[in-house]
Amino acid sequence: MPLTDLTLAECLALRPDLDEPADLDTFWDRTLTRARAAGGPARFTPVDTGLTQVTTYDVTVPGFAGEPVRGWLHLPAGADGPLGCVVEFLGYGRGRGLAHEQVLWANAGHAHFIMDTRGQGWSTAGGDTPDTADVVGTVPGFLTRGAESPHEHYYRRVFTDAVLFTEAARAHPAVDPARTVVTGVSQGGGITLAVAALVPGLAGAMPDVPFLCDIRRGALIAGAPPYTEIAEYLRLHRDRAGTVFSTLSYFDGALLASRATAPALFSIAMMDEVCPPSTSFAAYHRYGGDKDLRVYEFNGHEGGGGHHRREQLAWLRERLAPHRPTAPADAPDPATSAAPMTPADPVGPTALSVLHDPQLA
Predict the structure, then answer these.
(1) pTM score, whole prediction
(2) Phi and psi at residue 63, in whole multiples of 5°?
C-alpha cells in the first residue's frame, strides 16, 4: 500500500501542539486511588496446557471498581528465583485467547502476564472479561463509549485495569518488580504508554504501532477503524466535537507519554492506515524516558512482525538480565577472558541496530 500520511523526514521533525487537560494528573491520581481501595488479592489457578516447558496459571485481578479482570501467567518450567517479567496488553478486539497460545516471552526465560481487555474478544482471540458499564447511543466499538465525560469513558476502566494488573504482576513471588517491562501492539501499545506513565519504577516499555496517540489527528486522517468510529459519531452529533476530544485527551498516549521515565523501544510502520505513523511519532517524540525506535517503511499495521520480535528479544535480554554482584577488583576481565564474539552472535554490538536508521538516533 502507498504512503497515506507524512513522510519519514516529516514525521521525524513533527512536534505537534496537543491540548492537555489541566487536571490530567489529578484525574488519574484520584481514579487509581479509588480503584486500589476497591481491590483485593489476585488469584492464580494452575492450568494444564499440555506444554512441558511452560507453566501456566489462570489469573484474576481486581480491576476498575474491583471488577475481575482475567489473564494468563506463563512461567518457564522449573525457573528458580524471581524472574524478569513482561506484562502484555492486547490489540483492539482481541481477548486473552487460549492458555497455550502466547508463550514466546516465557520461552525466552521471562515471566509473562497477559491481560484480557474488558468487553473485547470478538476478533482473533476470545475474551473472558466483561465490561459492565451501560452503553447508550455509541458507535459500535469502544472509542465513543462514555464520550461525554472522561469519568464515564471506556478507557478509564481499561487503563485502570492495566495499572492494577501490572501491580499484581510485580507483586507475584516469581517476579522481580525491578525487572518488569510492559508491551503491546496497537491498542496494546496505547495501553503500554499509559501504564508506563502511571506506574513508576518499570524496567522498560515496548509500544508497537501504538493506537490512542494524538487521537484528534487520528480521527481526521485514519483510513480504517478504529479511529473512524470518532468521525462516524461526530457525523451525527455535530455539536459535540469539543466535548468528545476533551474527553479523549485524558486517554491520549501522546500526552501521557511525557510522564513516563522507563526506557522504551518503539516500532512504527510508515504505511499504517489504522494508526497513522504521524500519530505514533507524536507519542515517540514526547516520551519522557530514554527511547529507541524501529521504523518499518514498507509495512502497514502489521508492523515489524517476527523481525521486530527478534529486536525485542535482544532489547529485553539486556534489560531483564539478572543483577550480578560486582566482581572483585582482581577478578579477570570478562571482555578479555571470554571467547571471541562472532558476527552472527545475536548479542553482539550490532544486534540492536540492524534495522535502526542512523537518522533516528
Answers:
(1) 0.90
(2) -105, -140
